[in-house]
Amino acid sequence: MTTNSALTFDLAAYLKDRALEVDRAMETFLPAEADYMGNLGEAMRYGVFPGGKRFRPVLALAAAEALGADRALAMPAACAFELVHCFSLVHDDMPCMDNDVERRGKPTCHVAFGEDVALLAGDGLVIHAFEVAAATAALAGAEVAVRVVGELARAAGHPGMVGGQILDMHAQRHGVDRAGLLAIHQAKTGALIRGAVRAGALVGRASEAQLEALTGFGERVGLVFQITDDILDAGVDPDPISFPALFGMDKSRRMALEATEEAIDLLRPFGQSAQPLVHLASYLLDRSV
Amino acid sequence: MTTNSALTFDLAAYLKDRALEVDRAMETFLPAEADYMGNLGEAMRYGVFPGGKRFRPVLALAAAEALGADRALAMPAACAFELVHCFSLVHDDMPCMDNDVERRGKPTCHVAFGEDVALLAGDGLVIHAFEVAAATAALAGAEVAVRVVGELARAAGHPGMVGGQILDMHAQRHGVDRAGLLAIHQAKTGALIRGAVRAGALVGRASEAQLEALTGFGERVGLVFQITDDILDAGVDPDPISFPALFGMDKSRRMALEATEEAIDLLRPFGQSAQPLVHLASYLLDRSV
Fold first, then answer.
1. Rounded Cα gap, residues B204 and B212, in angstroms
2. Position B149 in a domain
3. Subunit contact A169:B128, Cβ cutoff 8 A
4. Which of B73, B104, B145, B172 is the most buried (most CB within 10 A)?
5. What mean pLDDT is predicted for residues A67-71?
6. A106, β-bridge pairs
7. B2 within domain boundaries
8. Residues of B in contact with A123 (CB under 8 A)
């Protein structure tokens, strides 16, 4: 752990509590009837529940709180980013992509519902994310909502996650150098994490300087997330397009540590209200050491 | 033709001119480099150009003009609806859906680029549509932009087009009655056409009464669009889930005529500025008689 206050902050309880809060909100944002439009509602919910750590929305809420805002104001923005994350998993698992048959201990969406329904459930989730993002207007005003929508689109779409997936596919076929690997992950996983932090910051009415600091935090946390993911996978399912493969294990660990220190340093001006963000960053680093 | 002024209005020239205007705008809204993010930019453009009649964006622009607004203000909203239409064609053509290999005389996106790239190009287009919709803010204010984003999400997503596709799939397998057919098309094709008209109306700062009238117009025009599509297909590729199959040819034609008359009647309060909408409605009806 990087800070002493870690002793007084129960991150496990915090994460559990926030994930539950996010799940409750997601529940209200999704189509109510399990049989909405045939089995589309059921398939969409299948892609969302049960969730993982809800890491992206928790970051968005914590960014708003770092600015002293009520985190409830950031809940639609937070959930919108999680819906995009869920959509990406449904489409990534499909036969024409990773062809995965199991995720989090249950059959993937296309195995459970068929490819056609999974394709449409993914489409439904990503489209709905934007209606949820737009709901920010009722809580934080239309100006902020429009910025959140733009943030989500750029983080999720061709300049971000979707573009990163294409780059990753090319790299798997043709190989990649270190700069290329960094570019892939900046887009593929980094953009959505960075975007979630920025969305929370926008709802918290960050100044330009605050937004810049939190953006830097989000970028570094996104990098650490990917490096530690790759380190954890290295023992189980080593990927030639990964940080340990291209930088070596020691250098990868050092990069993650440095990025975490920089991330935490950027939070200094926010004081005590940024403690959850500090601990989230430390937690990401710790899971690989 | 339903009105005398048809004699003085050159619809063919109007449609050509507006489609060109939309194409020029779409050009600026899409990633500039053909090789953006591997071949993702190329695949996204492939799904957008060359286009068809650009019917949805032309309706959005004409709705704004019916309210006396500068149609340039409605261009981002109009293009956002067209991007969603293009996305839906890319995903619909995929092997797990209709498995079509040709569209508008060229190989479909997944044939040209592979299934994985087509899936991501569709995802990229639908996500980008929301950034383009949000760009309405700079021209018509954030309040209007937020409403346009919500309109687009509901028209495109599970309550609209995506939901309608699921209903259609179920109907193809299990059959459907007349009410079911109407529900399918209201969602599958109607919602996006209705939404495009409403988006144009919102940018044109429609009053509640004007928005209601234009919504009614959009609903009827969407219905006519589908009925006449089904009538045109009946000779070539008859579908058991179609208006001629379930209502008979005569009744289908009568429904289209009545809906067109109602649509045009709803435009009466808008006077001369609604002439393009009147002619667009007549044109849709005429293509099947």
1. 13
2. yes
3. no
4. B145
5. 98
6. A103
7. no
8. 91, 122-123, 126, 157, 162
- Per-residue confidence (pLDDT) for residue A237, from 0 to 100: 82
Any domain includes B1:
no
The domain total for chain A is 1
Residues contacting residue A179 through CB under 8 Å, at least 6 positions apart: none
Domain that holds residue A143: 7-286
Nearest-angstrom CA–CA distance, A147 and B116: 30
Q: Chain-centre distance of CA B139, in angstroms?
A: 22
Write out the E strands in chain A: 102-103, 106-107
User: What's the pTM?
Assistant: 0.96
| Strand bridging mode B102-103 / A106-107 | unpaired
Rounded Cα distance between B133 and B75, Å, is: 9
Chain A residues inside the 8 Å CB shell of B97:
116, 119
Q: Supply the pLDDT for residue B139.
A: 98
Under an 8 A CB cutoff, do B116 and A97 touch?
Answer: yes
The pLDDT assigned to B261 comes to 98
**Under-50 pLDDT residues of chain B:** 1-3
Q: Tell me which chain B residues have a C-beta less than 8 angstroms from the C-beta of A97.
A: 116, 119
ipTM of this predicted complex? Answer: 0.96
Contact A36/B at CB under 8 A:
yes
> Which residue carries 């989090």 as its tokens?
A104
The DSSP result for A112-127, as a single string, is HH-HHHHHHHHHHHHH
CA dihedral B78, B80, B83, B84 (to 10 degrees): -110
pLDDT at A8: 76
Closest CA to B197 of B234, B230, B152, B160: B152
What's the rounded Cα separation, in Å, for the pair A227 and A258? 12
Per residue in B24-38, pLDDT (tens digit) is 999 999 987 665 677
A105, part of any domain: yes
The 10s digit of each residue's pLDDT in B225-241 is 999 999 999 888 888 89
DSSP state of B187: I
Q: What is the 3 state secondary structure string of A3-57?
A: CHHHHHCCHHHHHHHHHHHHHHHHHHHCCCCCCCCCCHHHHHHHCCCCCCCCHHH
Residues of chain A with pLDDT > 70: what percent?
Answer: 96
Give me the residues paired with residue A103 across strands.
A106
